[in-house]
Design goal:
By secondary structure, the protein is of the alpha+beta class. The protein has helices spanning about 30-35, 50-55, 65-70, 90-100; strands at about 10-15, 20, 40, 85-90.
């Protein structure tokens, strides 16, 4: 069952923007979550981010994992283009556990 990336995070006031944000952002970036065992894919056709998550992570609700790991911003309403290279975590449980523990 997919985990919500928001379940263990508080909302805080960002001093720079004076807006509310999750306590992990922007400190958590794709670069800080990358692992040598991650899979790198290159899309051979345009695809939606949830379809990619379903294919590689077993559930389309893990779309946010791909977005976070690849520093994608607002990927909805459009397909990712053919030729786009994406990093996919090889172990989704380890990835989610790392985020939930804040070990980045």
């Amino acid at each position: 069952m997919p985990y919500s990336r928001y379940s263990n995070f508080k909302t805080i006031l960002d001093g720079k923007t004076n807006k509310r944000r999750l306590e992990t952002f922007p400190p958590v970036t794709g670069e800080s979550l990358r692992d040598p065992s991650d899979i790198i894919i290159e899309l051979d056709q345009a695809q939606r981010i949830d379809a990619i998550a379903a294919s590689y992570l077993g559930d389309g609700r893990y779309w946010w994992v791909i977005c976070l790991l690849n520093d994608l911003v607002f990927p909805f309403g459009k397909n990712l283009k053919a030729g786009t290279r994406l990093r996919i975590p090889s172990n989704i449980d380890r990835f989610v556990d790392t985020i939930q523990r804040g070990i980045v």
